[in-house]
Amino acid sequence: MADESKNNEASKNKERIIPIDVVSEMKNSYLDYAMSVIVARALPDVRDGLKPVHRRILFAMHEMGLVPQSRFRKSATIVGEVIGKFHPHGDASVYDAMTKLAQNFSMRYPLVLPQGNFGSIDGDPPAAYRYTEAKLSKISQELLRDIEKDTVNFRPNYDNTKKEPAVFPTRVPNLLLNGTLGIAVGMATRVPPHNLREVVDALIYLVDNPKATIEDLFQFVKGPDFPTGGVIFNEKDIHHAYATGRGGVITRGEAEIVEGKKGQSQIIITSIPYQVNKAELIIKIADLVRDKKLDGIRDLRDESTSDIRVVIDLKSAGHPQKTLNALYKHTDLETTFHFNVLALSGGVPRLMSLRDILSEFVVHRKEVVTRRTKYDLGKAEDRAHILEGLSRALDHIDAIIKTIKQSKDTTEAQADLMKKFKFSERQAAAILDMKLQRLSGLERKKIEEELKEIKNLIRELKDLLANPKRLASLIQTEFKEIANIYGDERRTKIVKHGVKNIALEDLIPDIEQVLVITNDGYIKRTDPSEYRRQKRGGQGVSDINTKEEDFVNIFLTAKTHNDLLFFTDKGKIYQTKMYDIPEGKRATKGKSIMNFLSIAEGEQITSVLSMTREVKGKEGALLMVTKEGVAKKVSVKSFQDVRRSGIVAIRLSEKDKLLSANFVEKSDTVLLVTKGGQSIRFKESDIREMGRGAAGVRAITLRDKDSVISAVVAKPEDKALSLLVVSEKGFGKRSKLSEYKIQKRGGSGIKTAKVSPKTGILITGRMVRSDEEELLAISKNGQLIRIAIMEVPTLGRQTQGVRIMKIKGNDTVASATLL
Question: Which of 169, 190, 749, 779 suits a disulfide with 340, CB 3.0-4.6 Å?
Fold first, then answer.
C-alpha cells in the first residue's frame, strides 16, 4: 500500500515537471534582466533627465509637502517613504542617490536642499540618514510643476497601492542641465552638465526653427558647464561629441603660477576637473614627489574652504611651467570627459545628439502644455456650467425655494429642480448647496463677474489649443521665465583650440642627440658634446659599458622632438619620441628597449628612422629595403600614428629580414650598398607605392653570400655630394655621387669599394651632404671615435679607403653615423 502511494506521488511529480531548453531559458531570462536594468534603473528618460530612483525620491518629497518654504525633514523619513511606497530596493542605494541630488559639486543645479553632512569633493561619505535632513530645492519645483493637472501619465507602484508618474512635466531640460552617469547591461551613459541660459536660448531658437541643424545650435550651447568649473579644450572635439553623442573632451583644472613673498614661485589650483576627487589628487601629487617623478616641489597644502584652493610651493631652482605641465600629464588635473549620450526615448535606449535631446524636450513641453491647457479648459467649462446654473437659479429664486420646500428630502428636491427648470444634475446639486448669503445683490454680481471671466478664459484656452503658434510662444515665454529666475553665469571656460602641452615638448630643448642601441636591446641617448673630436686613425674613446657578448648595433643622431620609427627584422614598426628615451652619459649602459616598446620575444631592431614635423607634413613616402635586396615604398601617412603594440610595415619571406628605411620624395634617387662592396643607384619612381601588407619588389640582384647593408637617398639638387662607406676593420672613404650612374632597379649594380681581408666587409654607407659634418663610428665593444668628415678623403669607387679608426684585437666597427 505504501509502495503504491509512493508511485502515485512520483507520477504526479513527473507530470508537474516541464522540460525546457537551458540555452533558451538563460537567453530569455538574461534579456529580461538586462531590459529591466536598462529601462527601470540605469538610464535616464530624455524628457526629464531622471532615472526611476531619482524620480521617485523627488515625487515622494513632493507628496510629503517638502517644498522649499517648508521645514526640513529627516533623511531617514524620506528614505523610508521612498522605499515603502515607490522604490522596493535597499535604503543605502536610495540615500546615496538622494545625497547626489544635493551635492553642489556633483549637480550643476542641485534638486535637493541639504542640511547636515552630505559628503564632500574630497570623497568624504555623507553622514548616516538619521543625522541629516533635506527638502526640495526651488528648481526641482519646476520639474514637478503642473503634475496635478493630468500633464503626464501615472502608473501603479510596485504593490499596486499607489500611483507614480512615468515622467515629470518638467519645465527645465534636466538631462542637459545636470547630466547623468549610469551603467546598464551592455551599455552605459555619460552626459555632462550644461549652463541653463545657453540651453534655454537653444530651446527658444529650436521652437521657432524646428529644422535647425546641429551647427545652428552650437551658437547657443558652447560646451559643458561643470559645477567644479575648470577649462575644456578644442571646439572641434566638443562639436563632434554633440553631433554624434560620443567623443572625448579634454578638461583641466585651473592653475596659476604666482610669485610668493620671498620671490619663490607657487602654483595655485583654484578648480579641478569634474568628478575628480580633490583629496586623491593631492595624494597623487605627494606620491609623485616622494617617488621623485615630480621635481621642484617644496611643499603642498590644501587651503580650500567653500572654494577650491590647493597651494604648491616650488623650490627656488624649480621650473614652474615644467612642474605645472608634469601635473597635467601625471595627475587628474587634466582628464578627458568621454561623452556617451544614451537615454530612453519612448522606452527605448538611443544614442542622441544635442539636437535630438533638445527636440525631444520641446516635443515633451508641447505635450505637457497641451494636456495642461485641456485640463484647465475642462475645469473652466465645469465651473462655467455651475455658474450658469446659479445665475439662472437667482433669476427664479422664489419658484426654486418653493419647489425645495415642497420636497420631502434632498434627493426629491434635486430631481424636481432638474425636471421643472431643466438643470443638470451637477447644477441642481450646486443650487441645493448654495448658501442664503448668495441671494444678496453683491453676491449675485460676483457670480456674474466670475462667469464672465470664466467664459473669457475658455475662449483663450480654446484659441490656444487651436493655434500652434500661440502654443509655441507660450512655451518660449515659460523658458524665458526659467532662465530669468534660475540662470547664472558659465563656470567652465572654453578654449576653442586643442590643449597645447606647453611644458612637455616646448620646455625640452630641441637639440641634436646621439642614439645608441645594442644588439641585446639596450638603448640610450647622449649629448654629442660627450665625444670630443679626434684625428682619424685613433682608437677613440669608450662609449657604452656593454656585456662581453653584447655589442653596439645601431647608432644615429636625431633631435629630441623628433619621432623615432623603430623597424625590426620581422618587418614591424614601432614609434616613440626621442626625448622619451632616457639620457645617459657616454659610458653608461642604457635601459632595455622593452621598457619603451612592446617588442615580441626574439624580435630585433635593425633600423631606426628619425621623423621630423617637416617630414610629417610632406606628401612623401617611406622606402624600406631588406637584406635580400627587396624594396617597398609606402606612403608616410600610413605611419603617422603607430600604436604602442606596433604595426606590420612589410611582408617578408621566411629567410629575409627588414634592414633599413628612408623617407623619399619625387625625383629622388636611391643608392643601395652591399657588404661585398657592390652598389646600385635607381630612381625612387621605379618602385610604386604599395599597402602596408605588401611584400615589395626586387631592387638589386645579389651575388652568393652578399647582402644589403645600407640604403641612402640622394636629392636632385645633391649633385656635389659623396657616398661614405665604412668597413668593419675601420677603413673608410668618400666617393663622388657623380660616379654612380642611374640604372634600372633589379640589376647587380657596380663596385663601390674594394673589399679585402685587410678591410673586412662593409658595414655601412652614408650620404655626405656637407663638409661641416662629422663622422661618429662605434665598435661592437663600445669604442667610439668622432672625426671631421673632411679628414676622410674622396677616392675612386674601386679603392679600399684609408684607416679612420684603429681596431683592437677581434673588435670590429658596428655602426657609423654623421653629425
Answer: 190
